[in-house]
Structure of ATP-dependent 6-phosphofructokinase:
Amino acid sequence: MKKIAVFTSGGDAPGMNACVRAVVRTALYHGIEVVGIRRGYRGMIDGDFVPMTSYSVSNIIGQGGTILKSARCDEFRDIKWRKVAYDNCVKEGIEGLVAIGGNGTFTGAELLMENFGIPTIGCPGTIDNDLYGTDYTIGFDTAVNTALDAIDKIRDTASSHDRVFFVEVMGRDAGFIAMQCGIGGGAEKILVPENPDSIDDVIATLKSGGENEKPSHIVVVAEGEEIGNAHFIAQKAKEALPNLDIRVSNLGHIQRGGSPSAIDRIIASRMGIAAVEGLLEGKNNVMSGIIDDKIVYTSFNDAINKKKALDVDLIKMVKILNS
Amino acid sequence: MKKIAVFTSGGDAPGMNACVRAVVRTALYHGIEVVGIRRGYRGMIDGDFVPMTSYSVSNIIGQGGTILKSARCDEFRDIKWRKVAYDNCVKEGIEGLVAIGGNGTFTGAELLMENFGIPTIGCPGTIDNDLYGTDYTIGFDTAVNTALDAIDKIRDTASSHDRVFFVEVMGRDAGFIAMQCGIGGGAEKILVPENPDSIDDVIATLKSGGENEKPSHIVVVAEGEEIGNAHFIAQKAKEALPNLDIRVSNLGHIQRGGSPSAIDRIIASRMGIAAVEGLLEGKNNVMSGIIDDKIVYTSFNDAINKKKALDVDLIKMVKILNS
Amino acid sequence: MKKIAVFTSGGDAPGMNACVRAVVRTALYHGIEVVGIRRGYRGMIDGDFVPMTSYSVSNIIGQGGTILKSARCDEFRDIKWRKVAYDNCVKEGIEGLVAIGGNGTFTGAELLMENFGIPTIGCPGTIDNDLYGTDYTIGFDTAVNTALDAIDKIRDTASSHDRVFFVEVMGRDAGFIAMQCGIGGGAEKILVPENPDSIDDVIATLKSGGENEKPSHIVVVAEGEEIGNAHFIAQKAKEALPNLDIRVSNLGHIQRGGSPSAIDRIIASRMGIAAVEGLLEGKNNVMSGIIDDKIVYTSFNDAINKKKALDVDLIKMVKILNS
Amino acid sequence: MKKIAVFTSGGDAPGMNACVRAVVRTALYHGIEVVGIRRGYRGMIDGDFVPMTSYSVSNIIGQGGTILKSARCDEFRDIKWRKVAYDNCVKEGIEGLVAIGGNGTFTGAELLMENFGIPTIGCPGTIDNDLYGTDYTIGFDTAVNTALDAIDKIRDTASSHDRVFFVEVMGRDAGFIAMQCGIGGGAEKILVPENPDSIDDVIATLKSGGENEKPSHIVVVAEGEEIGNAHFIAQKAKEALPNLDIRVSNLGHIQRGGSPSAIDRIIASRMGIAAVEGLLEGKNNVMSGIIDDKIVYTSFNDAINKKKALDVDLIKMVKILNS
């Protein structure tokens, strides 16, 4: 293998740059050329390639976002456009790909392999931590700490005013972010899609707390929660408990940005190195993840289709920690 | 004067604790007893007084929120309840008050003086910076930096995806927070109530930017903006510019919390000292503010009724800085 | 078991308070009384016990330091004083202990058990991460992120002036902090006690870097590094490479403080719960750690005497990532 | 004026990039070309010029350090080398300069004007805040907040162990940083060059505190303090008060780095705009500062030679706030 390409795709996540840096430097270390593809599959179709040097990734390990940019690309579902993308890769001399992203990213890579035989290794880049085959995804720890910092701030004002706050966090249909920042933030209740809860449960918790001396409460709601989003649940709670001063805060896109945490920089670096080394060893159609602190390659098929379980025992913790 | 009381009232702001600490320590330094009143006027009516010692304010200078808590108290508008509050103060031996808060707080103190003659000095505690008689209010600098940090994070993801973000910040009907964090965050446009802007202006700015190579944009919207809130304006922009990827983030209550910045701790300390020393010098019905780095006492009447001007020349800066 | 005690001992670490909170709330959840012992073994000898309620640990999950304080206590090595401590515990009705700390803390607990039969379970609280029987110790992740943040700041000025910085970080005789913040901070070289390096190696690395266009460099030095501390090594490097602008920064005690990270709050909570539940199940003389994300109890003997290996393969990463 | 140059010189300071951005964008706004000179006077001698576009300063407003780099340049004291520098400027078509830096920077500019008549306007870029003619220098507020954050962390561990910490902060021979972060950090004593203090004073303060229940103490020492540095003073205190557990932390170069605070970004932007507009109005040999929130131009001569007074009344505050 003489030349590879690296790109980021899907929602951006802190640590993607650290991963790009690791891919570039590892390739150069092994004497392989690297190009970056801007805006993921969009750039592959447009032929938006940039040569990467050691210098071009210098001082990016701590930068949020992705210097290679990311974009949606619906056209890539059409084999006609995948052909265009593939032809651009061939023209550029690209013999292997490192794809940093999530489910959609890996699905695209699988199709590209199936259709045209270009090998790809993926690195799990998403704040949601919802990929099977790795304990942590790149960006998750940073997003959790960003949300936690926000919850700490909200608790300041909640305590000062004896208020109840429903805080909505990201995570698509997974409760990983909600669970971590909820436990870390001392939330009185954490609502995640993986654990059936009813509005009555929520109201009962707030009610029992409200009988003590006017307490503050934090309820963390995962965005994919089935019984509704934070505004909806808060509205129901207000109706049932008119004496409580109930507010809502949707943390939103701040959770995607910021300088990556130590863990995100380190796992991004390790996964990036493993991706390039995997390509050199002939691996293909797999994601480089970390399980029990060891690099593990998981097929894209499993990474996409198998369900990563949230440890709902953690919910028991919440009950104990609020006794 | 042998005994005074201190309380916080209205929306909480980072630095209120630093101010409480300064009031308590200054009183003790001058040989005066101090009690804290919990939950502002609510606690004055309820007789919720706590004796304050040097130790009870130790290590709070860096804490967000207010250890004395805050609350709304509609009853205080009724002289009957003010009488109850006053009687409680007399029973406790309180001869003067330090009120940390904003407009509503000072209005209450004025009435208390008018009705019963108990002297109050105010300290401007509000993140909004909308009080006449002081360059900065306690909490403003922290809120601006919190909002700025959020905007920096949002820019990471905006840049990665070439998106436009409408970011709504606090400030009630004043644009101080929006202006500071907008300039500091490199916003392409800042919408404040003090400066008439139309949706067409916003669209024109985004359009001219959008014609360059798919740029990201940040538009900061003050919550009191007359043409509508961030969601409303974003909706209009989406209709007019369907090719742009437009998102909204409402920063919400995180702006009220967090450990106060250096400036907020220092001005809170200075204003707290000045409030107690003002009481000792016989001052009354005034707010201790800082203008041009000097302590200035302004009558509650002026502080409440005069309009503090936002320097709209700063808006010209935005235009220059985005050229 | 009707009553237990909890204490913190040895060097303080961020997350100790989260652990104290978990111990207290778990005990209360199981209907057990809890007292806190102030200043570890010192307080046990002095009988400095404070009853703990759910309220007394409220809002401490995010606080640095330890509300129970910590202290050295050389007297505890003498059985005479351990007898005094034990008698105080008996008088207080304490039937079990949770000890949050490191090696020295667990050694004391072992002796107490051996002499008087009072059961203890330990929680690994130290920023150094040098305890066998757990992947992470409480405080480690926070200390790493604090050091990383400092390195990021130092890199700003190093880059601006083309300087080389030797940054000394904590870790006693272990290189865990150095390795994590070195990789996360993009350090060009990381010196840890576990990996023999010579001053010549350091000079060779700096020399090869210095031949490129006046670069900046970060060299992270663990405090226990055998070839000498950061000042000593920097001095040698200056002598060998007089053209480089070499500076030293010893990060010092900032690494012990600050609000704990999400991971530290969560592992502290999990370990604290496990400690109390372990006591209830009759466990004794063991530390509750987390290995591969599962609670594991390790005998104090092993935790103290077995050597936790630093993955020196990570050092290879440094070489690759700087190519 | 058709073309100007901008450079940074002397010690780097957070916000220098925000100032560079403002200079570049303001020049372009007025139809003037801009080049950046890398490494200050060093680059002027070497002819190290880079053309600046609006894009080349995009997303740097929040970056620490200086993208134009900085360096010492002793040769510039020699008119022979200043001639070389001047000739390079002429060759490049540069008709005016914006110099971001401190005393040394402005001295160089004065000489360049005197010898060859090239006009310069300065922007005060130094964390030390020791320049006459401006209330704040660029980088000061960020450095204070960085030092304050470190002091908060140190207090966590000081409180946990009842320790006394001597914390040394930057500021050369001025006590501005020490004073601000000392008051903000609740320091029990602040030693600044502007206020004569003796070691006996320090010992007396620690002694009176030490008689209360084993308290923690923070003493902030400005690096230029005449009675000696933090290590020296701490050593004397240890000898006099052997029962206290006294430690030293020298915060060092972290104070120079990091993303600039809101205030630093805003004043840097305002001063940068004012520098370019000043050049266009024919101003010369002056520094653009901000006094009482208004742009004021001060001659280099005054900025360099007049002494900016530290408000030593603030020291009285420290005494009151620790009562």
Notes: The radius of gyration of chain A is 22 Å. Chain A has a mean pLDDT of 95.
